[in-house]
TrEMBL record:
PANTHER family: BLL5978 PROTEIN, TRANS-ACONITATE 2-METHYLTRANSFERASE-RELATED. The lineage of its organism: Bacteria, Bacillati, Actinomycetota, Actinomycetes, Kitasatosporales. Coiled coil: none annotated. Pfam families: Methyltransf_13 (PF08421), Methyltransf_14 (PF08484), Methyltransf_23 (PF13489). Residues 4-63 form the Methyltransferase putative zinc binding domain. Residues 244-400 form the C-methyltransferase domain. Keywords: Methyltransferase, Transferase. This is SAM-dependent methyltransferase. The keyword Repeat does not apply. Transmembrane segments: none annotated. The keyword Magnesium does not apply. GO terms for biological process: antibiotic biosynthetic process; methylation. InterPro entries: Methyltransf_Zn-bd_dom_put, Methyltransf_Zn-bd_dom_put_sf, MeTrfase_14, SAM-dependent_MTases_sf. GO terms for molecular function: methyltransferase activity.
Amino acid sequence: MTSCRICGGPVVEFFDFGRQPVSDVFPAPADIGTEHFYRLAVGFCTDCTMVQQLEEVDREKMFPADYPYRSSGSSLMRRHFEETAAHYLATELNGPDPFYVEIGCNDGIMLNSVRAAGVRHLGVDPAEHAALAAGATGSRVHIGFFEEPAARRIREAEGPAQLVFSANTISHIAYIDSVFAGARALLAEGGVFVFEDRYLGDIVTHTYFDQVYDEHFYLFSVRSVQAMARQYGFDLIDVEHLSVHGGTMRYTTARAGERTVRPAVARWLAHEHDRKLSEQATYASFGAKVESHCAELRALLTRLKDEGKRVVGYGATCKSATVTNYCGIGPDLISAVCDSTPDKQHRVTPGSHIPILPPEHFSSPYPDYAVLFAWNHAEEIMAKEQEFKAAGGRWILYVPDVHLA
């Protein structure tokens, strides 16, 4: 039995997605056969309740210099981070000469908003090309991984930070003890370490099984984050549920005893108890639903193929790697995936090797059906692609169940 990466307690495996590729490395056709694969299995710690992967992928493989994801590619995410920056500029960053540090700043949506307000700032990101994109706008960026030694160097050079913030990054980091140690060393007295990540409660409730992929080493709940914070000398002082990515939780932590714990923490702990997020049976049920959804999706795609229908994918997302590889979906069932990210185009999807084409391919001509891999941006995408629906096209979604839209 595996030991918990957080508390050392026993971890019980509840689902195995089998052999999976690194989800955000899109091979050129000539590089097929050189991909790195690993076993994607997830388990539940019976002591601290942290859901975690059982096999770690090397961080250099997941976040190389040419890591292709860009936060700015979505108008929804641009608006989210601009609003988030405005909130913290009015609260945590409103004192004399505040200092802001962002872990996993990517191409700098939020960092740029903080910079524009005249606040001292530093983004930290190992993906060189994304970090350079943030730097090109004038924001200050350190290219590298955030961990305790890096945090101490930042503190020595820049002084303490009133806010250390991260979005969709902390759950990626298996060595999270060093991250909290770094935050502890870097924060000013009374400062806060805030991070947003996909919420386990939404993943389980809506069977968002494709949120399980290599980068999401941990799947956080309020209870497991509270236990993790305590393990590393912090208090979980506030939580806020957000709608982005199908359900995200914003966790606010501070050094133990430095800030008052707000009532939302107790409310969400009670909510999770009622939903049985701390019981193994919940995860066994989740696993059964995953198997059912995958079987239904493959059966639907097979039937459409037999009927001579043309099906493409929409959005070469990280999470689609879990779907295509676990469900056994390749170019025989989905002829191509359309994506607006130039660095992904004319490459193939990880493991399943479906060709990735520019967005103009989607309408030349429209397919009969489109699998919406980027379902977390469904509203934005469907509003943009109304002509597809007007031409008789149908969207295929596989969460919270397999259905047509």
